[in-house]
Amino acid sequence: MVHKGLRITQGTFSYLPDFTDEETKAQIQYGIENGWAPSVEFTSDPHPRNVYWEMWGMPMFDLKDASAALFEVKRCREAFPNSYIRVSLYNSKLTKQTTALQFIVNRPAYEPGFRLDRQEASDRIVRYTLHAYALDRPEGERYRDA
Amino acid sequence: MPWIDPRASGIEMPEDAPARPSLGPGVRTVDRPALFGAAEVGALELDDDTVVDAQELVRDARIDEVLDRLDSELVALRDVKTRIREIAALLVVDRLRRAVGLESEPPTLHMCFTGNPGAGKTTVAMRMGEILYRLGYVRKGHLVVVTRDDLVGQYVGHTAPKTTEVLKRAMGGVLFIDEAYHIYRVDNERDYGQEAVEMLLQVMENQRQDLVVIMAGYKKEMDRFFSDVPGLSSRIAHHIDFPDYSIGELMQIASMMVERQRYRFGAGAGAAFEDYLAMRMTQPRFANGRSVRNALDRIRMRQAIRIYEAAGRGRRLTKRDLVTIEAEDILKSRVFDGGAYASGSAERV
To answer: Is A116 contained in some domain?
Structure first.
């Protein structure tokens, strides 16, 4: 059996085929028109509980047009082509102050996926851990080309 | 999981079913032919006699309205208006060409406005944003006004993020760099201006479709700036010179300003103001339209104090008193004292 990897599904739209740049831009523009601030983040750790990714620059609070955010996405992609990159749109309105929309815009060419680790604990208890294969290698070498 | 087009997979779909699932608000679904590039499809199918409707495009974009407003609200500046009309025409024709499938590079619209203070550079730049927006050349049409301080940093590594920030803010609209020649100081080689200029050049070249850069400054300084920075001048397609106004044009500007602020010149006041302008123009630090505006502000103050004092003396006031500027309000100006002005340090009117 050949292992095909696992396409991780985090954030919105992750069950859809990857967006083109035009589609990404349209989504960001939709957020901007709602008054949300786009920001770009990246990581090489695909674990679902890894919620705080590295920031690619500051959130862009005073943008009018999504092409500037897309410009940052492209720069981030150039620097970390084989990483997960996501765009977050933050709603800063009082009483909201939370991420309104977040989606992945770049992923490694090959995503190896996860294995389930079982740990025998006392009294025959079994603890389960999700282990990302990518994390077995040091940062920067976690993903190979497809 | 690859997404499967139900039509391609042979699954029966109703005739009006969307070719792709809706991606939610903010996403326009694109018709198939457009997806493959209207250019190839169009060029194959449309022959040379295809009729294009320029009228409709002009009407829809309400371009005439903007141009007419430019004509009526800006006095003189014939060269500027001609150039803007040309640009507007080019963009309309470009869109028509695209409609029939003739692909062409979007034109470069970076501009440089040179002229003396008060010649209307900023006013035209503001209008430019709106015009380009109506023509669909920029997506938002907002104007971001910056000077050297907004672009150039204070220490090593400060300039690049600062300039990028500004450029990002301006994307989709117009970036107006006032007194652009200040950015680069050739006499100080440790100045960070060079870095800002390089980033500007790069974005002006690579992201033409994302923003339009308009630089403004006085003629002499801008010429020196362009000779110091090779490659900048040639990246700006439109060099527009704003000439000084004649006295007749300044009077026109004045009467428009007076009207807009709901005042009117009383008997002899118009002539007095013309005398005032004639004298003011010969004096230093004359700033065209801006001087006219400042003069009118002072005149309004003098009119106000005159009315206030008259009311204090028990005179009954009418609406006419409130809107009328009398000759005496103008003639009280220091400009008519002669001599005293020329040696003054600030602009007094």
So the answer is: no
Say whether both B168 and B228 belong to one domain.
yes
The model's pLDDT over B30-75, given as tens digits with 9 standing for 90+, comes to 443 333 444 444 445 567 777 777 777 777 767 778 788 888 888 8
Would you call A30 and B26 a contact, using CB atoms and an 8 Å cutoff? Answer: yes
Strand, coil or helix: B281: helix
Tokens of residue B246, six digits: 């004649």
Task: Please indicate, yes or no, whether residues B231 and B258 belong to a single structural domain of this protein.
Answer: no
In degrees rounded to 5, what are phi and psi of residue B141?
80, 10
The verdict on a CB contact (< 8 Å) between A23 and B23 is: yes
The helix or strand, by DSSP H or E, that contains position B301, with its residue range, turns out to be helix B288-312
What span, in angstroms and rounded, lies between the C-alpha atoms of B12 and A100? 37
Q: For residue range B232-275, what is the model confidence (pLDDT) as tens digits?
A: 888 898 899 998 999 999 999 999 999 999 999 988 899 999 99
* Token representation of residue B117: 């203070």
Which residues in chain A have their CB less than 8 angstroms from residue B143's CB? Answer: none
Q: Which domain holds residue A94?
A: 21-109
Which of A57, A64, A72 has the CB atom closest to B140's CB atom? Answer: A64
Domain boundary residue among B215, B242, B269? B242
With contact defined as beta carbons under 8 Å apart, do B137 and B72 qualify?
A: no
